[in-house]
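Q: Please design a sequence for this.
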């Protein structure tokens, strides 16, 4: 006799089931309070470069200042969306593009604020024949995975330039750290990258930028990553979620003011493995200027392009979806953000010779340590 089990029962049987909340049903979880009066929140992270605002909020006491006892939960990329959706942890920082398709398919996750811009590029050999997006027609593009943000960004750029990414491009998948090698060996004509891979390839002189999410219009003002929260947890713990949002946004402003210091902190405190100068360059390339309105606008911008190229359903009502998934908290506004002040450390910014420092570091240290990128791991999106 066939036995039917629910999706939740199936996921509870998997190795990461210990991350899921026990003793209460999803949707009824009320955050615990510590003896000191702090609200317990589980913060998921993968150990990637652009999660620096979370690491800073942890280490600089921003969560505690907001009355939050933040518990770190290390999660693998392939598990992140499902574990967050089921309440195994309560919040994290993730790319907007990566979550729109799962949300369309029913994932119960909310977004609360834009954290940073940039981080995605299309790149080609500096002396090769490809200099414009139009030159990519009919070419082979290397990506770290079908459905990853670099893949989606490349699709968006191609679609806007009247190139059909389904019929006029050959996609080839390589691990993020091997994209530069694939380009060197002539296995691809261009690559779609994210940080820190894009900065590394530029530092090594292996590529030039063909399209850059952080520079080129209409993408330059678009927020790549947003704060993501478990939908049911937000419903029952709005005040705590607002406080956690404030802590991470303050962390983002600290990273913007001190990218070099944030890079060192991320490595020294064991959140990720990377070379300090390379990590500093990657953080310095990302505008950590958080925004409430910008986070909302990012949903519309990404969804419009993703509908046009067929990743999202043509029938999706973007305005309705945005209203349903984007949560704004009283007092957590762009006006409030403008009043948040953080110190600027003497050695916190990148020096003028930062690129040279990266180059020397790579020569001295040998093969680079790759911190995972916020946009590089495989995604279940299938077109």
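A: Design:
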């Amino acid at each position: 006799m066939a036995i039917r089990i629910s999706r939740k029962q199936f996921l509870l049987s998997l190795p990461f089931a210990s991350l899921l909340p026990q003793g209460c049903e999803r949707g009824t979880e009320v955050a615990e309070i510590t003896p000191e009066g702090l609200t317990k929140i589980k913060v998921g992270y993968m150990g990637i470069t652009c999660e620096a605002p979370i690491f800073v909020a942890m280490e600089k006491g921003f969560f505690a200042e907001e009355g939050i006892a933040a518990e770190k939960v290390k999660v693998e990329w392939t598990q992140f969306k499902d574990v967050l959706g089921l309440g195994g942890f309560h919040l994290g920082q993730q790319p907007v593009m990566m979550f729109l398709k799962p949300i369309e398919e029913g994932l119960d996750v909310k977004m609360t604020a834009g954290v940073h811009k940039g981080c995605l590029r299309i790149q080609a050999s500096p002396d090769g024949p490809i200099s414009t997006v139009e030159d990519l027609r009919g070419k082979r593009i290397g990506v770290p995975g079908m459905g990853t943000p670099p893949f989606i960004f490349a699709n968006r750029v191609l679609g806007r330039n009247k190139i059909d990414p389904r019929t006029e491009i050959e996609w080839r998948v390589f691990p993020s750290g091997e994209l530069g090698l694939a380009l060197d060996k002539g296995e691809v004509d261009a690559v779609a990258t994210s940080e820190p891979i894009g900065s590394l390839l530029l530092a090594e002189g292996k590529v030039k930028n063909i399209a850059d999410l952080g520079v080129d219009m209409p993408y330059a003002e678009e927020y790549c990553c947003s704060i993501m929260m478990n939908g049911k947890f937000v419903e029952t713990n709005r005040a705590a979620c607002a406080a956690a949002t404030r802590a991470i946004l303050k962390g983002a402003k600290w990273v913007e003011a001190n990218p070099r210091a944030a890079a060192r902190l991320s490595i020294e405190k064991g959140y990720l493995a990377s070379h300090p100068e390379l990590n500093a360059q990657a953080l310095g390339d990302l505008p950590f200027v958080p925004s409430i309105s910008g986070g909302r606008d990012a949903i519309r911008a990404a969804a419009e392009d993703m509908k046009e190229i067929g990743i999202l359903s043509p029938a999706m009502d973007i305005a309705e979806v945005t209203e349903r998934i984007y949560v704004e908290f009283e007092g957590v506004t762009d006006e409030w953000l403008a009043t948040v002040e953080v110190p600027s450390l003497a050695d916190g910014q990148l020096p003028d010779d930062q690129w040279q420092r990266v180059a020397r570091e790579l020569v001295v240290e040998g093969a680079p340590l790759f911190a995972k990128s916020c946009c590089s791991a495989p995604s279940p999106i299938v077109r």
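Q: Thanks. Anything notable?
A: Residues 101 and 312 are 6 Å apart (CA to CA). The radius of gyration is 20 Å.
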